[in-house]
């Protein structure tokens, strides 16, 4: 895993990258045409750098990876899911007013549960 980089996840490696991860994972369901998704991207890169080694930030392009998006019932984007030990433990839909703080709060809660 490259330091400070989000990880592009496919339908094929979602299980390995997310469900089998030994650290908490934030999964960003997004699409290139989504304005709010583009606003979220640099914030998620920053969080990936801050939490490097303690958590992963993964991105699922819903246009390319429809199986996972359908499996989790993604109806609007951006939607962020927090997984811990393979279980969905929290989510954020859309860009909240304090987006960075909200993502970190959920990630910190997952880390505290370890």
TrEMBL record:
Q: Recorded GO terms, molecular function? A: protein-disulfide reductase activity
Q: Give residue numbers for the site Deprotonates C-terminal active site Cys.
A: 28
Cystine bridges: which residues? 34-37
Q: Which PROSITE patterns match?
A: GLUTAREDOXIN_2 (PS51354), THIOREDOXIN_2 (PS51352)
Record: active site: 34 (nucleophile), 37 (nucleophile)
Is Nucleotide-binding one of the keywords UniProt gives this record? no
Q: Keywords in UniProt for this one?
A: Disulfide bond, Electron transport, Redox-active center, Transport
A single GO CC term for this protein reads: cytosol
Thioredoxin domain location: 1-112
Annotated site (Contributes to redox potential value): 35-36
Q: Which Pfam families match?
A: Thioredoxin (PF00085)
Q: Which GO terms describe its biological process?
A: cell redox homeostasis
Q: Does the keyword DNA damage apply?
A: no
Which PANTHER family does the protein's record reference? GEO12009P1
The record's comment on protein family reads: Belongs to the thioredoxin family.
The record's NCBIfam families line, in alphabetical order, gives: thioredoxin
Name used for this protein in its record: Thioredoxin
Q: Which gene encodes it?
A: trxA
């Amino acid at each position: 895993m490259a330091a400070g980089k989000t990880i592009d996840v496919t339908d094929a490696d979602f299980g390995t990258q997310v469900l089998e991860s030994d650290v908490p994972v934030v999964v960003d369901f997004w699409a290139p045409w989504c304005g709010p998704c583009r606003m979220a991207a640099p914030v998620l890169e920053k969080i990936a750098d801050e939490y490097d080694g303690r958590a992963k930030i993964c991105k699922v392009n819903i246009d390319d990876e429809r199986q996972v998006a359908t499996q989790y019932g993604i109806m609007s984007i951006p939607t962020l899911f927090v997984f811990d030990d393979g279980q969905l433990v929290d989510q954020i839909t859309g860009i909240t007013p304090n987006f960075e703080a909200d993502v970190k709060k959920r990630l910190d809660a997952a880390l505290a549960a370890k």
